[in-house]
Design a protein that fits this description.
Elements lengths: L1 H15 L12 E9 L4 H9 L8 E10 L1 H13 L3 E5 L9 H12 L4 E4 L4 E3 L3 H6 L8 E4 L1 E3 L2 H7 L14 H22 L11 E4 H6 L15 H11 L3 E4 L6 E3 L5 H16 L1 H4 L5 H20 L3 H29 L3 H4 L2 H18 L15 E3 L5 E3 L1
């Protein structure tokens, strides 16, 4: 509990710190995104990227075909005729030792030309000043920019389609979307606070950027071979460890990226299981950070245990249970209340009580499943067998 509350206090302090200085320089930028299947949101994102206020001669959009269906492939080829700076490549050109998304991103990076690499996902929405705002954070001292992401829902999505600069506010419309939106906001607030305190530990592939020179310096995705994900949070740790990357967090309205909510409880849980597997891997990539996910899991798991024990033995367990709940709620509410107000997400902050109640069993479940997260599928594909030194296939 002490470790968990200390970390929350650290994040709260970080959210009070001012944002980083900006630059008016305009480096060459390559936006890398990978897409697979029908991917119905992809045309919207490509159009939004094609309508950026950044100089077209300095902006390249690299779309990696990671198994697009024939209809979507034809539609994207049509977009290439409309946007001369759109380049379509195949994931087959990526490092064959990498799995799925990591291989696709590697293929896009290999074909890109920008000195700054920006990343988002096919189901995201970006404003017309997204590229220019992210690029402005690359002063001479900065190597890596972590951008704010948030969950969009049907209402916000409908308002934003056709209006890349829309400032529509997400309005959760189902209990799952509501929980996911609040939970994602808390994760972003923690990431923001950690970066601003000089201890960056998380990033999101939905909204991040770094210098190509940094990618080359650390050997690309070499250290995440065999992982379904890891292109964001784990790569950030690799960049900090080997490249001494200097990191900032971008949170102004122009830089925000909205991502579609999960379409089912199963999809949501599988995604979070994979994320938790990355957190578990921190024992290798950042041992100093590893106690935080462990403490987060243990605090919530012990509250579940104390709740069960307080039923037959209230005299023994009810008091420590109540004290634990009050301490946890006070610190979490301070982070949520502060962050929601500063990020103009007060409509989400009002739903903190429901999130707090559900988060305890949710984190307990996620923690248990983190041991299996790297064996789950990514967009209907599991991690592929790799050849070991003897040439025999093994499942990583």
């Amino acid at each position: 509990m002490a470790v968990y509350l200390a970390a929350l206090a650290w994040f709260i302090l970080g959210n009070f710190r001012k944002g980083p200085p900006r630059s008016d320089q305009q480096p060459t930028v390559s936006v890398i995104l990978a897409a697979r299947g029908a991917c119905r949101w992809l045309p919207r994102l490509v159009d939004q990227l094609g309508d950026q206020d950044y100089p077209a001669e300095k902006l390249q959009i690299v779309l990696v075909d990671d198994g697009l269906d024939s209809g979507m492939k034809r539609e994207m080829e049509g977009r290439a005729g409309r946007y001369p700076n759109l380049l379509i490549v195949t994931s087959a050109t990526g490092d064959q030792r990498l799995d799925h998304k990591n291989r696709a991103l590697d293929a896009g990076i290999r074909k890109s030309a920008g000195t700054v690499l920006m990343f988002t996902d096919a189901d995201c929405q970006v404003g017309s000043r997204w590229v220019s705002s992210m690029a402005s954070h690359f002063t001479a001292q900065i190597d890596y920019v972590v951008g704010w992401s948030q969950i969009a829902t049907a209402t916000a999505t409908a308002a934003a389609v056709g209006a890349p600069g829309s400032d529509a506010t997400p309005q959760p419309e189902s209990p799952l979307q509501l929980f996911e939106a609040v939970d994602f906001m808390v994760l972003m607030l923690a990431a923001k606070g950690a970066v601003r305190m000089g201890t960056p530990w998380a990033s999101s592939g939905q909204n991040q950027a770094y210098r190509r020179s940094l990618f080359d310096l650390v050997g690309g995705f070499e250290e995440i071979i065999g992982r379904l994900q890891g292109d964001d949070a784990l790569f950030l740790q690799i960049a900090r460890r080997h490249g001494a990357a200097r990191v900032v967090f971008a949170d102004d309205p122009a830089v925000m990226v909205r991502t579609e909510p999960s379409d089912s409880l199963s999809h949501f849980l599988r995604q979070r299981f994979r994320w938790a597997a990355d957190a578990l891997a921190m024992v290798v990539y950042n041992p100093w950070f590893f106690p935080l996910p462990v403490a987060t899991f243990l605090v919530n798991a012990l509250i579940v245990v104390m709740t069960i024990l307080s039923l037959p033995y209230p005299d023994l367990w009810l008091t420590p249970l109540i004290l634990s709940l009050l301490a946890k709620a006070a610190f979490e509410w301070a982070l949520v209340a502060l962050g929601a107000r500063r990020m103009k997400l007060g409509h989400l902050g009002r739903h903190y009580p429901q999130w707090f109640a559900l988060q305890i069993p949710y984190v307990t479940l996620i923690g248990i499943m983190s041991f299996f997260g790297n064996r789950l599928s990514w967009k209907d594909r599991a991690a592929e067998p790799k050849a070991n030194a003897s040439g025999k296939a093994e499942h990583v």
